[in-house]
């Protein structure tokens, strides 16, 4: 079974600075998809960024970028120029491309990000 | 385009009762999945439906069930509620292929007393 590990329960960053959230995963599949979701206090899960495993290029969405290391099974999220609105719980998630993992997300435990003014 | 809509948003039930939660997916999405979020267990997959068929199911007891209607709306039911069923239940939708991104609703908060 696939597992996702987020080793940082909490992180903090100063406004306008950069922070990196870590995520590792375990899978025997060769094709899969990785996601970072943000869950603010409203509790709605909001997609931040996604990465296809077959793509070597790291995904970028405005101030958010990932460092995807397939061999190391590592998928970190970098937030540049942090803003107060970035404060939230961040979840790393895995979705397989075959078999039972096709139609579901496997989540890490989350990292609570605090942004200090 | 409207997002994923869940009703009710908040509810309180008594142990032993049953509850039904409803989810309307994004227009055009045919896949609906459900997740349970608790402080202790985190986010756990319940089940996923596509075109009224359950394609995948998580490791939950038979008290947890779901269904999907022909308009892609979905319901999940929990019978014989236990205190441990208190959680945020998140519904998510996607077009339905394994390459799709999954989009979430705001969740239904269930408290069992």
Could you characterize the architecture of this molecule?
The complex is a heterodimer of chains A (117) and B (113). Chain A has 117 residues and is mainly β. In chain A, 0% of the residues lie in helices and 51% in strands. Chain A contains no helices and 12 strands. In chain A, strands 2, 5, 6, 10, 11 and 12 form a 6-stranded mixed β-sheet that branches. Chain A has a 4-stranded antiparallel β-sheet with strand order 3-9-8-7, with no helix packed on it. In chain A, strands 1-4 form a two-stranded antiparallel sheet. The mean pLDDT of chain A is 93. With 113 residues, chain B is mainly beta. Helices cover 0% and strands 53% of the residues of chain B. Chain B contains no helices and 11 strands. Chain B has strands spanning 5-7, 10-13, 19-24, 31-38, 42-50, 53-57, 64-68, 74-78, 87-94, 103-104, 108-112. In chain B, the strands form 2 sheets. In chain B, strands 2, 4, 5, 6, 9, 10 and 11 form a 7-stranded mixed β-sheet that branches. The model of chain B has no long low-confidence stretch (mean pLDDT 95). At the A-B interface, strand 5, strand 6, strand 10 and strand 11 of A face strand 4, strand 5, strand 9 and strand 10 of B.
């Amino acid at each position: 079974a696939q597992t996702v590990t987020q080793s940082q329960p909490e992180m903090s960053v100063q406004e306008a600075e950069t922070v990196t959230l870590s995520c590792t995963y375990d899978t025997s599949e060769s094709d899969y998809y990785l996601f970072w979701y943000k869950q603010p206090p409203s509790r709605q899960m909001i997609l931040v960024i996604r990465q296809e495993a077959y793509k070597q290029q790291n995904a970028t969405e405005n101030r958010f970028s990932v460092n995807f290391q397939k061999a190391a099974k590592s998928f970190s999220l970098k937030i540049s120029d942090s803003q107060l609105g970035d404060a939230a719980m961040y979840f790393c998630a895995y979705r397989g491309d075959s078999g039972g993992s096709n139609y579901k997300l496997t989540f890490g435990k989350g990292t609570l990000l605090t942004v200090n003014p | 385009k409207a997002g994923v809509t869940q009703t009710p948003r908040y509810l309180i039930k008594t142990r032993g009762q049953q509850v039904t939660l409803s989810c309307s997916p994004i227009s055009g999405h045919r896949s609906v999945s459900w997740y349970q979020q608790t402080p202790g267990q985190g986010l756990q997959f319940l089940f996923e439906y596509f075109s009224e068929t359950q394609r995948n199911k998580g490791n939950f007891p038979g008290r947890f069930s779901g269904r999907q209607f022909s308009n892609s709306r979905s319901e999940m039911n929990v019978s014989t509620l236990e205190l441990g069923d208190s959680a945020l239940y998140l519904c998510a939708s996607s077009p339905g292929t394994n390459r799709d991104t999954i989009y979430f609703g705001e969740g239904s908060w269930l408290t069992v007393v």
